[in-house]
Specification:
This protein is of the alpha+beta class and 422 residues long. It contains 17 helices and four strands. Helix 10 runs antiparallel to helix 11 and helix 11 runs antiparallel to helix 12.
Length: 422
């Protein structure tokens, strides 16, 4: 994540995504989290430094709390940039707040051996394994749908554009390769947790992890996510494996083994605080298991309405393109006009807004507030919106007769989304 922050900064994305826009799309319930303007650079600096401190184990507890808060704040500033792996980093860093990850091979224990734990309960390791298993299994279950398995969508749109790749590119012109990727991807997500959990198949499973994620990195521009998953999978190996890595690092760093040994035999001790941690983490995992299932509470096609879509490990399952034209009606005079979205949104924001109902509603309320400040106090706002899902012809998405100023964001179903008929 330290490397990721440097990469984000170097590519100019801080300015492009968090400073240049004049309007930001907030998450429901987190409207109070606002962009910080030029201070955003300071926020990223704090996030990057805390990530480095976590990596070397320097002031670990404060560092991981700081990283979780700063990274999650960045994530919540604008939902236009939502990605599953950003969410993964947030939940993993939250989990690590409650685990003694800085109490063995770390700067803290090197300087203060009394902080070193020679033993911790197995559930500390299993908690990270469980989170990874949840991610993979839900990602696999999400692929068990007709779009992915029987229509090869959206891979049938994406993969043929990679036919320029050497050696393998020409294969993406054939449907059988598209379906091989679709079925293989679903099978991989569903079986990889069990391969990694089993000692006899762990080595083979890890080779599959490396192959799958490196191939994903080559085919799709999804940043650091493949490398996050590759290195996270190392948690499934036993302690002897990790001790060999640590011994090798000690040799490279020219640190004698005795320096990381405690003065006395210390271990993770049972206490009221540790019991509270277990209770918190039990609730945490109940949320992680339940949250991806909330989509069953909503009617309609999930890919169409996207109600219950986020935070459910649905990775790269659809391709949507849309066009949204907003009509502002002055009820006092009866006059009306269309909005040029480029006056208020970046091209990236407009692309995201045109296919997601909560974005459309939030943008309409922003327009209402903006034009009200211009003296137009009694407005109605309508949208003429068309969306194409997974290569289909575009169809009308939002009820054009619904006044968006009358709608308010909530967790209830948005009845003004037109039904998906096929």
């Amino acid at each position: 994540m330290f490397i990721s922050i440097i990469r984000f900064w170097a590519l100019g994305w801080i300015d492009k995504l968090y400073i240049q826009p004049i309007f930001f799309f907030s998450y429901h319930g987190f409207e109070w989290i606002k962009p910080l303007g030029s201070l955003t650079y300071l926020l990223f600096f704090i996030c990057g430094i805390s990530a480095l401190f976590v990596a070397v184990g320097l002031r670990y507890k404060w560092a991981i709390i700081t990283f979780f808060l700063s990274f999650t704040y960045i994530e919540l500033m604008d939902k236009t940039t939502y990605l599953n792996h950003y969410y993964f980093v947030s939940v993993l860093s939250f989990l690590l707040i409650f685990l003694p990850a800085g109490n063995y091979f770390s700067w803290d224990t090197l300087k203060k051996p009394r902080k070193l734990f020679l033993q911790i309960p197995q559930w500390n390791i299993d908690a990270i394994k469980l989170l990874l298993c949840i991610v993979y299994l839900y990602a696999g279950l999400a692929k068990l749908n007709s779009e992915w398995l029987f229509q090869g969508m959206p891979l049938k749109i994406w993969l043929p554009t990679k036919d320029y790749l050497p050696m393998i590119g020409f294969l993406f012109r054939y449907d059988w390769m598209i379906y091989l990727f679709a079925w293989g991807g679903a099978l991989y997500d569903l079986i990889i947790p069990f391969l990694l959990l089993n000692r006899k198949t762990r080595g083979f499973g890890f080779m599959m992890v490396v192959f799958f994620h490196l191939l994903t990195a080559i085919l799709f521009p999804i940043g650091m996510f493949p490398y996050l998953m590759i290195f996270s999978a190392l948690i499934f190996f036993n302690y002897q494996f990790h001790q060999k890595i640590i011994d090798r690092l000690l040799e490279i760093l020219n640190i004698k083994n005795r320096k990381i040994h405690p003065i006395q035999d210390t271990s993770f001790r049972h206490s009221l605080i540790n019991t509270a941690k277990i209770i918190i983490l039990a609730l945490f995992f109940l949320i992680q298991i339940g949250l991806p299932l909330r989509y069953v509470l909503y009617p309609g096609n999930l890919f169409w309405t996207e109600e219950g879509y986020r935070w459910s490990w649905r990775v790269m399952l659809m391709e949507k393109a849309g066009l949204a034209q907003f009509k502002i009606v002055d009820n006092a005079s009866g006059s009306w006009f269309y909005v040029n979205n480029e006056d208020f949104l970046t091209s990236f924001q407009e692309k995201q807004m045109a296919t997601q109902p909560d974005f459309i509603l939030q943008y309409a309320h922003f327009l209402n507030e903006y034009f009200s400040q211009q003296g137009m106090t009694d407005l109605s706002i309508f949208v003429d919106c068309f969306v194409a899902l997974n290569g289909r012809k575009s169809t009308r998405y939002i009820d054009p007769k619904f006044d968006l100023t009358k709608g308010y964001e909530s967790f209830a179903h948005k009845s003004w989304i037109l039904p998906f008929n096929e």
